[in-house]
């Protein structure tokens, strides 16, 4: 897809925290700069991997403002703004718009299960009308986590009602057929489809999708950048194989603490292991497992980082 706003590789950025579980904006901004210098076209901040729903409204604003103040371009960020509360979703979306972000990633209202498409259409209509324009909304399809999927019919209705506002989707379902159906149904209208699974990047690009927004990009974005730049050929195929291998390595343990472990060992910064409950750091056995899996894939040391140090 040409001219996609976030076209390419977008990391679902980990949120760094201090010992008291408050956001560590200096550490997070440094990581964001490394991502942008090592294969990432954009940054999905405050998503699932960033533990957004473990942070309060004011903390989420503080994180976005803090990254911008530390030189991370607002134009390269897609903040997550979807909440169970309608008014919180509106407030965070306006905040992202006013900060200069071109788009936001929005979960459906996820507390009440099995809402109808009519109910979801009403919710997103309220959000769009209350925000009042100036920012594009990307739908976050992650039914395993939210238990509230976006049907093709609902997406079509939203696109018809709000052209140019409902701009794309992140599909974290792991169902390539669903991603493919979204591209075939809506990409012709400029709808940007992003895979939430690294293993589908090359396929979705060939299909006409816009790229990916993935957790493992926190550590494998170097190879994602090669796939996005090359698309086909031996170098792209090898890079895609690395994306697939590292994704499988990342999911061999609980994903978010596993990625924190990889970054902690790769940087020698144990602070990356700090995580908000109900998530927990990995056990020593899990930590060794995920490190061994990334090493076996050939992804250690991470390109652009200092040589890996021993675990602390």
Automatic annotation (TrEMBL):
Molecular-function GO terms, alphabetical: 4-hydroxy-tetrahydrodipicolinate synthase activity
Its EC number(s): 4.3.3.7
Keywords: Lyase
Catalytic-site annotation from UniProt: 140 (proton donor/acceptor), 170 (schiff-base intermediate with substrate)
The keyword Ribosomal protein appears for this protein: no
Annotated PANTHER family: BLR3884 PROTEIN (PTHR12128:SF67), DIHYDRODIPICOLINATE SYNTHASE (PTHR12128)
UniProt name for this protein: 4-hydroxy-tetrahydrodipicolinate synthase
Organism: Neoroseomonas alkaliterrae
Lineage per the UniProt record: Bacteria, Pseudomonadati, Pseudomonadota, Alphaproteobacteria, Acetobacterales
């Amino acid at each position: 897809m040409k001219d996609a706003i976030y076209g390419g590789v977008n990391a679902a950025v980990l949120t760094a925290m201090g010992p008291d579980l408050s956001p560590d904006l200096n550490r997070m901004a440094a990581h964001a700069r490394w991502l942008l210098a090592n294969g990432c076209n954009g940054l999905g901040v405050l998503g699932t991997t960033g533990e957004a729903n473990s942070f309060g409204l004011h903390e989420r604003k503080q994180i976005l403002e803090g990254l911008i103040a530390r030189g991370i371009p607002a134009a390269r960020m897609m903040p997550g703004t979807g909440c169970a509360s309608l008014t919180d979703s509106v407030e965070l979306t306006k905040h992202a718009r006013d900060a200069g972000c071109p788009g936001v990633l929005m979960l459906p209202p996820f507390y009440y299960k099995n809402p109808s498409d009519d109910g979801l259409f009403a919710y997103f209509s309220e959000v769009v009308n209350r925000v009042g324009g100036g920012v594009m909304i990307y739908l976050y399809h992650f039914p395993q986590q939210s238990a509230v999927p976006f049907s093709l019919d609902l997406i079509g209705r939203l696109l018809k009602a709000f052209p140019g506002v409902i701009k794309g989707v992140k599909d974290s379902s792991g169902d390539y057929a669903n991603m493919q159906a979204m591209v075939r149904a809506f990409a012709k209208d400029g709808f940007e489809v992003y895979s939430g699974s690294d293993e589908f990047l090359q396929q979705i690009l060939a299909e006409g999708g816009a790229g990916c927004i993935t957790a493992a990009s926190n550590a494998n974005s170097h190879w994602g950048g090669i796939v996005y730049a090359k698309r086909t050929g031996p170098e792209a195929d090898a890079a895609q194989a690395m994306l697939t291998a590292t994704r499988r390595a990342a999911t061999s343990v609980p994903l978010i603490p596993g990625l924190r472990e990889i970054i902690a060992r790769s940087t020698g910064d144990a602070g990356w292991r700090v995580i908000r409950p109900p998530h927990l750091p990995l056990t020593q056995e899990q930590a060794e497992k995920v490190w061994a899996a990334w090493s076996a894939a050939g992804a250690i040391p991470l390109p652009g980082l200092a040589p890996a140090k021993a675990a602390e």
